[in-house]
Structure formats: structure tokens, C-alpha cells
Design goal:
- The complex is a heterodimer of chains A (about 475) and B (about 240).
- Chain A is α+β, with helices and mostly antiparallel strands and about 475 residues long.
- Chain A contains 13 helices and 16 strands.
- Chain A has 2 domains: about 190 residues, no CATH class; about 240 residues, no CATH class.
- The two termini of chain A are about 30 Å apart.
- Chain B is an alpha/beta fold and about 240 residues long.
- Chain B has a domain of about 170 residues: 3-Layer(aba) Sandwich (Rossmann fold), CATH 3.40.50.300.
- Chain B has 7 helices and 10 strands.
- In chain B, the strands form 2 sheets. A 6-stranded mixed beta sheet of chain B has the order 6-7-8-3-9-10, sandwiched between helices.
- Classes of the chains: A alpha+beta (about 475), B alpha/beta (about 240).
- Chains A and B meet through α1, α2, α10 and α13 of A and α2, α4 and α6 of B.
């Protein structure tokens, strides 16, 4: 060691050892340091990716919400087809069901017979229970875990009894776990069975009707009070005109509660409870609690024993205008989603490509130095790719939180805005959108960094070192 | 005893303590021609050069004489258009790009005129740049090297916080992180004042004492005179060799 260097060392106070945890010793440290060295560019790209991810999550969440609503509309129209009666089995989270529908009424003994046949088929007395038609099955939306329940009787006509008119959509959807999901729109009407048969026998869903054309008096009341044996308090309703007919309400014979029935679907079942011989049902559901039971075979077996059930398959009303509309809407939503995701992906790729290109072109001499110092082409390539990935993932983290909050807000606003007629699920994190957005960022980072990384790795160290400072 | 070298295409784990080759560099009829559009530029013409291991050599010549081209060939950053470049008994012209990279990493330390340090990293991180992809970068050795070049107390300083001389000393420490048998320096004092340049040259002398081979490229006659062997290059032709 030279005298000068020895002197420098002797005069140098020891500042302590560097802590390796605080240093950028490895490749990722180098990448972080470089990203920090260009805060404006790095920040701009992170922001751009964050905006893209936010948009992706918002668009995805709304699309999923719209899709769910559209599917429900589609289902309502499907159920509303006049091709019924039908028979099919439903698979739900609570178990499997067979729904049997007859052209004339089932009587209570027949319900017991069908239950017996099902138990005999399954070989167990515990595995099958038959019900007259009930909200448990008939109000359920397959695939979604949602079910209809009647919550409250809003109004009644004292002259006709409690089974007549209902001035609001009395139902709400409830998730299988009991979580409240959706209130339905004001200004719509669900008619009681008797009133529908007497006054609006030909009314279709969506028809605008006037419940009190002759100056009849209608009241608001709470049915639970009545059921509980308490006093029925009535509130006079000033007007019941211009209501949209969305369904009818009838009595669920199994629970003696009111059940919402989409209009049209049960148009020929509404005699339930009104026969001279007592309560009757035109539909029976058989709940099966046997895992792996052959439901199709059971359905066949029950159908064989019930001559009056005329139809076997759920027939989709593909020829109805509503179905076509719902399908077109569903298809449009998917197209919009794919287009939006495509545009966002391309934007992210271009943003990251631009940043990576700038990084590489500004660091030509540095890359030449790295190559001269012994870093391989592959290692230089990785540095560029990892930097792009780091920036992308930083953007994703910010975008994820921003997108989740924004999507939740937007969905909740739309959910509240009944006048828009949109029926959306409240904001929630949809796993496939989260996973999809991560994958989108990773793909965008690697695709965007591909050309700059290739350019960096293909540089001759000699030529790169001779680049201008 | 000269510092041992490590192979390019078939590297060995460690060769410290090996005697190493008798001649670190042996060039025979080396030509390097660059195509500049339709024009051919003969940067080196039939260059012959033999440099024993463990010596301090300087290559002196005016700007554009081919000094850096020659250094690039010796440093495995380039291959000759014709002729033989033997470094540490390895014929570099026959190595693949990957093997040349490996050879550089294991056997050659580079020091540049403009230091070429990474501005966003501090001193000790800069020293560790060549080994950043290793599972456990040798922090102890980096600290030791910083002490060796007199920058032990400046390990946490970034290049912008160091003087020109300190930057070049840092670059020397970086060149040594892989314990190379040969250090190549391209105008290492070209950007420094006289006194600071002297300090850097002393550092290179220290390296030779450790058994390393050092080749300095310079246009400065005074700097060139520090070499045990001085090669003169004029218009791509090795015109003179003085010991």
C-alpha cells in the first residue's frame, strides 16, 4: 500500500460497519435504487399503472354486477314463459330439489305419496322431504344462491282481505347466508292472487296498471302485526296509479306465509288455497338431502308416478323478446368488458414499454459498464424486466386499493339509485378480478419490457461504453 | 509470483495460489477492422505484444491510435478481425460471447476514465455491482477493498458526494471485487488533476505488488513512463516497446 493511502487509512475514523440489511447489495437492490433515482418517471409510470388497475377493477366489478343483474332478468323472463308447467331439479347450496308441476291441483295426500316415493327411491326416510310449492324453491334463483322472501305486506284492501293487492314489490333478495342484498323498486306492484285473477287476468310483467281507478281506498299495514295477533294499524294511501306490475303474491302452503311468484310463471298455479275442498297445490318440491343422489333418475321415478305432470324439462323462452334483450345485454357487457380490459392492457404495455425504453436508452453506458464488469446478457435482460415488474406491481398495489374503494363506492351509488333501474350487487371484491388484474400487470410488465430488455441485453459492451455520457 | 487466472470456457472454482501463466497477454498479428458504412477503418494493424504476468504495463499513444481497441481485445470485450489474442493462456477469439463474459467476470477488472459508477448506489454498493446476482454478495470483502483504497469511512457516500480521485479509487475497488488476475485501466488519470492521478497510479503499483497484471492505457507520456513495460501505438501499429 502506498504511503499516501496508508496515511488516508490511518487518518480515517471508523464509521462502523455497513449493515447489509440497509444496502442494495443484490440485483433487486440495484433495481430499487434505479427506480428511486428517477422518481418522476417511476412515479408517473406507477401512477399510470395504478390508474389502469383502478379502472380495471371498477369496470370489472360493475360488469360483474351488471352481468348478475342481467342474468337475473334473463331468468325472470325465462321463468315467465307460458310454456310452463315444467319439471326439473334445482341444485342449490341447501341441497337438491325436484320440482314437479301438475296441470291440476295436488292434494295434501298426494304430497305425502310423492315424498314416500322419493324416500323409497333413495332408501332412507331422512333423505327426502316433499313440500307444496313454497318460496324455498320457487322463489330461488338457480346459480346465484339468492332466494325470494316476502317481508312485509304494505297495503291491503279491507274489502277483499289480506290476500289481495300489494302496492310495493314486497320481496327482497336474500343471499343464502341471510345477508340482505337488494331492495326492489318503489312504484312497482305485486298483485295479490285474487285481485290479479279478477281485475288483471291478462296483465303481463311490466304492464302499467292503476290499482284504484274507482276511488277505492287502500291502506298500508304490517302483516306481521296481524299474524302476531296484534292490532292491524292501517294507513290510508292517497294514490295507487301508474304502477308497474311485476308479479303476484300467493300463500305458501308449507309455511302459511306469503310467497312472491313471478307473474306468468305461476299463472296457472294460483288456485292454491282456493278450492272448495281445502288447500291445494299445483306444484310440489321434493328436497333431497342425500349426497350424490341420482337426481335425474329420481325425477324420472317421480314423474312416472305422477301422471298429471306433463312436462319434464325446463324450457327456455328463447323466443321471447325479454330473453333476447337480456341475452343481448349480457353479450354486450362481456364485449365491453373484453374491450375495456384489452384497451387497459395495451395502455399498460405501452406505458411500461415507454418507461423501459427510456431507462435503457439513458443507461446505455451503464449497461456497457455492467457487461464489462461481467454481467451476462441474461442478467442485464433480467434487470430491465424486473424493474418493469417492480414498477408494475407498485402500480397494482395502489390501483388495487384505489379500485376497490372506487368500485365499492360506484356500485353502492348505483345500488342506491333505484331510478336508474340497475340492479347491482353492492361493492365487493371479486376474486377473479383481483387475480386477473395481477396477471394483467405481470403480462403488461413482461410484454412492455420485452423490446427494451432485448435491446439492453444485445448491446455490445464495447459499443455501449463508447456511448456519449 | 503472479496472480492466478480463472478459465473462461471451463472455469475452475479457485485458483488463488496457482502460479498462473508466464505471459498474461500474448498477441500475434492482431488486426481489428471496423466497418463504418462503406468505409473500413483499420484500428489495429498486425499488432504483436507479449506481456509477462504480474507487471505494470502502459500503452501510450495519441487519440485515435487504437489504444482502447487494444484494451478491449485484451479485456475480452471484443474479438480480433484476424490474429490471435491469448490472455492467461486462453485464446479469446475462440470463446463464445457467454464464455467471454465469464472470462471477464473472473479474470479482468476494468477501470474507466469517467469512472462509470452507478450514481444511485453508495460506495459499498457500487463495489458489489459485479456480484449483484450472487446469492450472498461478499460485503466483508467490499468493505476490505474500500479500506484498501482509502474509502472505508466513505462507504455510504454516493459517487456525487465523492471527489474525482475518490471516485476513481472506488472504481479500482469495484474492479477488484472478483479478485481478478489482471486490471485494465483506460485513461484512469485522464480526468484527474496531477496529484490525484499520482495517488491512483500508486494504487495500481500496489496491485502489481500483490501479483496482479495491470495495463494502463494513456495518451500522457508522463503517466506512460510509470509502466515497467511501455508499448507505443501509432495509427494502429505497435511502433515501440520499452522496458
Amino acid at each position: 500500500m502506498s504511503r499516501r493511502n496508508r496515511r488516508i487509512l490511518e487518518e480515517t475514523p471508523d464509521p462502523g460497519r455497513p449493515d447489509k440489511d440497509e444496502l442494495s447489495l443484490k440485483a433487486y437492490g440495484y433495481i430499487l435504487a434505479n427506480a428511486r433515482a428517477n422518481p418522476l418517471r417511476t412515479g408517473a409510470t406507477i401512477t399510470a399503472v395504478a390508474v389502469a388497475v383502478t379502472f380495471l377493477i371498477v369496470v370489472g366489478s360493475i360488469s360483474v354486477g351488471l352481468e348478475g343483474a342481467t342474468q337475473r332478468e334473463l331468468l325472470d323472463y325465462t321463468l315467465g314463459t307460458p310454456e310452463l308447467p315444467i319439471s326439473d331439479f334445482f341444485q342449490t347450496e341447501e341441497g337438491d330439489f325436484v320440482g314437479l308441476f301438475a296441470t291440476t291441483l295436488f292434494d295434501p295426500d298426494e304430497v305425502v305419496d310423492i315424498q314416500y316415493a322419493a324416500r323409497q327411491f333413495l332408501g332412507s326416510a331422512e333423505d327426502a322431504t316433499a313440500y307444496p310449492y313454497s318460496e324455498r324453491v320457487l322463489g330461488r334463483i338457480p346459480f346465484t344462491g339468492l332466494s325470494y322472501h316476502v317481508e312485509r305486506l304494505i297495503a291491503l284492501d279491507p274489502g277483499q282481505g289480506v290476500t289481495t293487492p300489494y302496492t310495493k314489490y314486497h320481496t327482497y333478495l336474500q343471499l343464502a347466508n341471510g345477508q340482505h342484498l337488494e331492495d326492489l323498486n318503489a312504484g312497482e306492484v305485486v298483485l295479490g292472487n285474487q285481485l290479479w285473477k279478477d281485475r288483471y287476468p291478462d296483465a303481463l310483467p311490466g304492464a302499467i296498471i292503476d290499482l284504484a281507478p274507482d276511488g277505492e281506498t287502500w291502506f298500508d299495514a304490517a302483516v306481521e302485526d296481524l299474524r302476531a295477533g296484534g292490532d292491524l294499524s292501517l294507513t290510508r294511501l292517497p294514490s295507487l296509479g301508474g304502477l308497474r306490475l311485476v308479479g303476484i303474491l300467493d300463500r305458501d302452503l308449507s309455511t302459511d306465509r306469503n310467497a312472491y311468484v313471478p307473474l306468468g310463471y305461476f299463472a296457472d298455479l294460483t288456485g292454491a288455497g282456493s278450492t272448495e275442498d281445502g288447500p291445494r297445490s299445483e306444484a310440489i318440491s321434493v328436497e333431497v338431502d342425500a349426497e350424490g343422489a341420482d337426481m335425474e333418475a329420481l325425477t324420472e321415478r317421480l314423474l312416472d308416478g305422477t301422471d298429471r305432470v306433463t312436462s319434464f324439462f325446463l324450457t327456455s323462452a328463447t323466443d321471447t323478446e325479454g330473453t333476447k334483450l337480456a341475452e343481448a345485454l349480457s353479450s354486450a357487457i362481456y364485449s365491453w368488458l373484453v374491450l375495456a380490459v384489452g384497451v387497459i392492457l395495451v395502455g399498460m404495455v405501452l406505458g411500461i414499454a415507454n418507461t423501459s425504453s427510456l431507462t435503457v436508452s439513458q443507461r446505455v453506458r451503464e449497461i456497457g459498464t455492467l457487461r464489462a464488469l461481467g454481467l451476462s446478457r441474461d442478467q442485464v435482460r433480467k434487470l430491465v424486466q424486473w424493474e418493469a415488474l417492480f414498477i408494475g406491481m407498485m402500480g397494482w398495489v395502489i390501483g388495487f386499493f384505489a379500485g376497490t374503494i372506487l368500485a365499492s363506492s360506484v356500485l353502492n351509488v348505483l345500488y342506491e339509485a333505484e331510478e336508474l333501474g340497475l340492479v347491482l350487487a353492492p361493492g365487493r371484491i371479486v376474486p377473479f378480478i383481483v387475480v386477473g388484474s395481477v396477471l394483467a400487470v405481470i403480462v403488461a410488465a413482461f410484454v412492455g419490457a420485452e423490446i427494451p430488455a432485448r435491446k439492453a441485453s444485445s448491446m455490445s459492451p464495447m459499443e455501449a461504453l463508447s456511448a456519449p455520457l | 509470483m503472479s496472480k492466478g487466472v480463472r478459465g473462461g470456457s471451463a472455469p475452475r472454482d479457485t485458483l488463488d495460489g496457482d502460479d498462473g501463466p508466464e505471459n498474461m497477454v500474448a498477441l500475434r498479428k492482431v488486426n481489428r477492422v471496423f466497418e463504418m458504412g462503406s468505409r473500413e477503418v483499420h484500428a489495429l494493424k498486425d499488432v504483436n505484444m507479449t506481456l509477462p504476468a504480474g507487471r505494470l504495463a502502459t500503452i501510450q499513444g495519441p487519440s485515435g491510435s487504437g489504444k482502447t481497441t487494444l484494451l478491449n481485445l485484451i479485456g475480452a470485450m471484443d474479438v480480433p478481425s484476424s490474429g490471435s489474442v491469448m490472455v492467461a493462456d486462453q485464446e479469446l477469439g475462440r470463446l463464445t460471447d457467454e464464455a467471454l463474459t465469464d472470462f471477464r467476470r473472473r479474470n479482468v477488472g476494468f477501470v474507466f476514465q469517467f469512472f462509470n459508477l452507478i450514481p444511485s448506489l453508495n460506495a459499498v454498493e457500487n463495489v458489489l455491482v459485479p456480484v449483484m446476482f450472487e446469492a450472498e454478495p461478499p460485503l466483508d470483502r467490499a468493505v476490505e477493498l474500500l479500506g484498501k483504497v482509502g474509502l472505508k469511512d466513505r462507504w455510504d457516500h454516493r459517487p456525487a458526494q465523492l471527489s474525482g480521485g475518490e471516485r476513481q479509487r472506488l472504481a479500482v475497488a469495484r474492479a477488484l471485487i472478483n479478485d481478478p488476475a489482471m486490471v485494465l485501466a483506460d485513461e484512469p488519470t485522464g480526468n484527474l488533476d496531477h496529484q490525484t492521478g499520482e495517488g491512483i497510479l500508486n494504487l495500481f503499483t500496489d496491485l502489481v505488488r500483490e501479483g496482479r497484471t495491470v495495463i494502463l492505457v494513456t495518451h500522457d507520456v508522463e503517466v506512460a513512463s510509470k509502466g515497467e513495460i511501455v508499448y507505443m501505438l501509432r495509427d494502429g501499429v505497435m511502433s515501440e516497446q520499452k522496458e
